[in-house]
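Chain A, query sequence.
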Amino acid sequence: MMPRFRVAMAQINTTVGDFEGNTRKIIERLEEAQALGADLVAFPELAIPGYPPEDLLIKTEFVRENLACLEEIARHAVRAAAVVGVADSGDHLYNAAAVLAAGRVAGVYRKMRLPNYGVFDEKRYFQPGVESPVFVIHGVPVGVTVCEDIWAPGGPLLAQSLAGALVAVNINGSPYSIGKWRVRDEMLKTRARDYAVAIVYTNLVGGQDELVFDGMSVVVGPTGGIAARGPAFDEALVVVDLDVEAIRGIRRYNPIRTWDGAQETGIRAPVYTLSTAAPAPDRPPLPGRPVAAPPEELEEIYRALVLGTRDYVRKNRFRTVVVGLSGGIDSSLVAAIAVDAVGAENVRAATMPSRFTSEESRRYAAEVAAALGIRTIDLPIEPVAAAYEGVLREAFAGRPRDIAEENLQARTRGNLLMALSNKFGWLVLTTGNKSELSVGYATLYGDMAGGFAVIKDVPKTLVYRLARWRNARGAHPVIPAGVLERAPTAELREQQRDVDTLPPYEVLDPILALYVEEDRSAEEIVAQGFDPATVARVIAMVDASEYKRRQAPPGVKITPKAFGKDRRLPITNWYRSRTASETPTAR
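Chain A, predicted structure.
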């Protein structure tokens, strides 16, 4: 009986442009996998340059350096074959998976399906590959593909299966969104069953600008069973033994192995033999069945926000962050995420009360800071805001107090936070949520001023759910019950409440999900039972606020459609839905 084929998935956190660090990390995981007797180890998509490198790919020296690193890594692949993501260069540039064996680059697969939707822009940089090779490793035919290649039926995976591949390695940089791992699982199970292959799906982990990669690499057997799974949001080397003879047995009766099927793919799938000797039988035993349990939804979202924040801070070489702590739910949650991301010793809180700040807000801010163990700086803004108003008194003469004076307070706070950033090198974390950003209920150069917007893709109702989850997971609550129970307010005037300006968040958020994330029309939203006037008002507010969103800092993407690369609308734009005629006052 042939010994089992041992595969490893190196779920690593790379940094774009850190060739030295990425190369070192790849070699370390490669050596670890070889010590465990792995026959094959797979690394994520574009692991060497980091993902996504965007316009760095236009720099010829960037591509050259990434290829030099590939040669260095290849010299270490002496006992196991390795599949490593690299930017390959020839007549064109390619998103590629290099196959390393016997200390050299033994072959290259070039990604054939280039995504160009949502956050993906691959046709800007890459040309598609034209063939889909199979590599025989220790007598086992292995197909190699990259990310999007496997997301639709047919294509390179079918061609490789028809050419005899029993194991399919697919390397990925698959960005996180809520529950996406479940969709991936179902897709992979379908592909594995349809083509009678074991799929080794290796995913990136970590944060890069607004994107988060959740890891959760997975091995799916030819009947759709999960053989191994990596942890969520953590680096790991996941190793599993595959019963290749069992896969061969299933393959004998699979209808894909027909001449007609081979002709229909239209893709050339050459077979390259790298090694024919069977895997060594005397290898270290594996420590149990490596199947990590996926997190439940709120934990999944919270951990994505923590990882995205941590990596943005660390990869941009900041040590300390500062949060404007108001005593409200948004800033309380951001402070908790910041502490979990970088540690309480690296978080500062600035309290900036005005004459409209209630005593309970002051108390709650102090309680949150104490519960999280973060130091606070008290910066009363009344003298500064009053000075602004004094300077503007003559210019504003004859006009009633309105939103302009309210926003002076927010902009005073933004100035103070940025002054702390300039003086001490702290990164300002803004505290606005997706609901507010959608409808423009935010102040340019005020509460929108900062370096990273932790919850910019988190709707307000989800903010409350995450805050309650965070309270329940620790030894004691960190967000006071009063913060969760009080009516949301910006406290820029007497007795102000969010509901005075906006529909209740329980109404607003579902409308925003339909309009922003699903691109539903006003008529379609109304048909789901929402008040027509409310729908028209919300749509008008969203449409009129694009100029603000363009000036917002980056933040963690958690939904299928976040503001930014996911949703690109012109600022100068006269198109309006026929039922969305109400125009809000700009803040």
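The chain is about 35% helix and 15% strand. The domain at 297-499 is CATH 3.40.50.620 (Rossmann fold).
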